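re: ur question from yesterday

yeah so i grabbed the chain u mentioned. its 154 aa long if i counted rite. heres the sequnce exactly as i have it in my notes:
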Amino acid sequence: MKCPFCFYNETKVIDSRPDLDEKRIKRRRECLSCSKRFITYETVYSAPIIIIKKDNSREMFDRNKVLNGMLRACEKRPVSIERIEHAVDEIESALQSSLEDEIPSYKIGELAMSKLKELDEVAYVRFASVYRSFADIGAFMNELKSLIGENKTK
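ran it thru and got these structure tokens back, copy pasting raw so excuse formatting
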């Protein structure tokens, strides 16, 4: 690690600990030449997630789009923001660990619906109605019936 003050190439680590969010390692370092101290943060590199949209265009995964969609579905429902953010974290983690370079957008929608079904069934139906663009009330009713059928078997 190069010293930001004198640009000497060798430093020593004085202290290491997880950062507040526990997603980074905070390291206090000291330069072996000028003895000045500084802090660095170490994070795990994760390759960008590329999403293949319905029109075959590609864009970078945007966590906020998933979060906003789920927040809209959960509006006025008894679901905390923490639970929604945790679900989005799990979706992002699943995408990162999939080992695929490019992921079709429908997979993200399916993951979001799966998480919403666990969180709140009304939010799930709201999200599904927009995501699946039901052609008519019959298709919507079929989704509701399958949801009701699942609840009876639980």
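noticed a couple things. The chain has two domains: 11-43, 50-153. also The radius of gyration is 22 Å.
anyway ttyl
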